[in-house]
Amino acid sequence: MSDKALVLFSGGQDSTVCLAWALSRFQMIDTIGFDYGQYHRIELDCRQKVISEIKRKFPLWKSKLGSDHIIDLSILGQISQTALTENISITIDDSGLPNTFVPGRNLLFFIFAAAIAYQRGFKNLVGGMSQSDFSGYPDCRKDTIVAQQKALNLGMDTNFKIITPLMWLDKAKTWKLAENLGGVELTEIIIQHTHTCYKGNRSLLHSWGYGCADCPACLLRQRGYETWLRTDS
Questions:
Q1: 8 Cβ contact list (under 8 Å, min separation 6)
Q2: Taking CA atoms, which of 28, 30, 144, 165 is between 20 and 30 Å from 22?
Q3: CA nearest 16: which of 162, 190, 180, 165?
Q4: CA-atom Rg of the chain in angstroms
């Protein structure tokens, strides 16, 4: 396996754990983030703080961090009518999916990540998709990831490997993985500096991090944190 990895890094909890996971396994790490017109765009500001805190608190990981890439995918927000790209209430649509689902988002993310990885000579693409703790998003399922990897390799005539360390982990286990990877220092970075709240709320710091404490992303993060504390004590 190549010693280089490109991590899809949003500035949220899951992608931060994936970044730490990759830093513990590979020798060179690039990160990539996407501005797709998300209503909680503040996550793009948080991601830079997370990177700087990881560099400050983990000197060995600092030496592995390479380039950070920000890709403008604002066109995706312009053609999407979702609760992640517009200031509308979160509901369940006729298909049974929450309207926080942005059609094509993860598929596009991997296409652009692969294009950069191809130019950089990276073979490993790391993403925080999870089939265990998700809102029914079809582009977070393992079958989708396997199909995407096959399509990228056929279309670019290469041998990318898409790695999803959180695929079978719920949020409590994700908190535990963070603790195993970086101890209190990493879990504090997640609490203090990552962003998950769909509403972009960073007005109040809870025990599990900043957020509105009401949207599905906040509730999932809170429940996972509390379960982790109970099972870890």
A1: 15, 18, 32, 33, 109, 110, 113, 125, 126, 127, 128
A2: 144
A3: 190
A4: 17
CB count in 10 Å sphere of residue 207? 9
Please report which residue ranges of the chain form alpha helices under DSSP H.
Answer: 13-23, 42-57, 59-62, 74-79, 105-120, 142-156, 171-193, 216-232
Which residue has tokens 């990539």?
32
**205-206 and 209-210 strand pairing:** antiparallel
- Tell me the pLDDT tens digit for each residue of 133-183: 767 789 999 999 999 999 999 999 999 999 999 999 999 999 999 999 999
How would you label 95-115 residue by residue, b for 16+ Cβ within 10 Å and e otherwise? eeebbbbbbebbebbbebbbe
This prediction has a pTM of 0.94
Q: For the segment 11-70, what is each residue's pLDDT rounded down to a tens digit?
A: 999 999 999 999 999 999 999 999 988 988 899 999 999 999 999 999 999 999 999 999
Instruction: Spell out the domains of the chain, with CATH numbers in brackets.
Output: 4-232 (3.40.50.620)
Per DSSP, the three-state class of 100 is coil
CB within 8 Å of 76: residues ≥ 6 apart: 36, 37, 85, 102, 104, 105, 108
Q: How far apart (Å, rounded) are the C-alpha atoms in residues 46 and 48?
A: 5
| Spatial distance between the Cα atoms of 136 and 166, rounded to a whole number of angstroms | 15
H-helix or E-strand containing 125? strand 124-126
Give the type of residue at 82.
Answer: T
**Spatial CA neighbour of 48 closest among 69, 71, 64, 63:** 69
